[in-house]
Design goal:
Layout (H helix, E strand, L loop, with lengths): L1 H8 L5 H6 L3 H37 L5 H28 L12 H4 L1 H15 L3 H11 L1 H10 L1 H15 L2 H32 L6
Helix pairs in contact: 1-3, 3-4
Length: 206
């Protein structure tokens, strides 16, 4: 119950996330599910280890039943497979258990090379002119924006965000600057007209 309420409290989408269709609540729920699956996987590893040790202990103390050997072999295979999978995934990102084993932490050591290769792949296959034009045409951004703004909740939120932005200190400074510039310009024009009138009056000769 506490986890669900915490997820609900932190699940309010930003304006950009709302327009893009992002769902922070679903992301938070997926993170909770990931932690739960980690606990389940660790539990299976511990269980397989306990079964394997129990079978080996039984065989060492005279257990001759055939099924004991099969169960022990199955538990051993599960335990070895779990450790191999853990090592393979961990070795991609860091040194397992902090031990600098050769050919581990591959992504950390070669991130620049991998990033350059990935950038080249994306540029050549996803950012070409034809692909971008097709994606923009299929995205139908004006239609999606119109449908999104047609909902009263979204329209009210955009209005509130716009009002907040227009009332910010920077907006107030720009408004004051524009009013000051306009006043200065009007004063300059008035002074120029007054000087022109004075210059055009006939001078009296003594």
């Amino acid at each position: 119950m506490r986890t669900t309420s915490a997820v609900t409290r932190g699940a309010r989408a930003s304006l950009a996330e709302s327009f893009a269709g992002a769902d922070p609540q679903a992301d938070a729920e997926r993170r909770v599910a990931l932690r739960r699956m980690k606990v389940v996987a660790l539990s299976f590893l511990v269980g397989a280890t306990v079964v394997f040790l129990a079978c080996r202990w039984g065989q060492a103390h005279g257990a001759t039943a055939l099924w004991v050997g099969y169960v022990g072999a199955a538990a051993e295979a599960g335990m070895v497979g779990a450790l191999a999978d853990w090592f393979a995934v961990t070795a991609l990102f860091k040194h397992p258990l902090g031990i600098p084993i050769p050919h581990t932490a591959i992504i950390k050591r070669k991130k620049d090379q991998l990033g350059e290769g990935l950038g080249t792949f994306v540029r050549e296959n996803f950012l070409s002119q034809e692909v971008v034009e097709t994606k923009l045409r299929d995205a139908q951004v004006p239609s999606r924006l119109g449908k999104w703004l047609a909902e009263p909740t979204h329209a009210q939120r955009v209005a509130a965000e716009t009002a907040t932005a227009s009332a910010s200190p920077s907006s107030t400074w720009w408004s004051t600057r524009r009013r000051s510039t306009r006043t200065t310009s009007e004063t300059s024009r008035s002074s120029w007209r007054r000087a022109t009138r004075l210059a055009s009056w006939p001078r009296t000769t003594g």
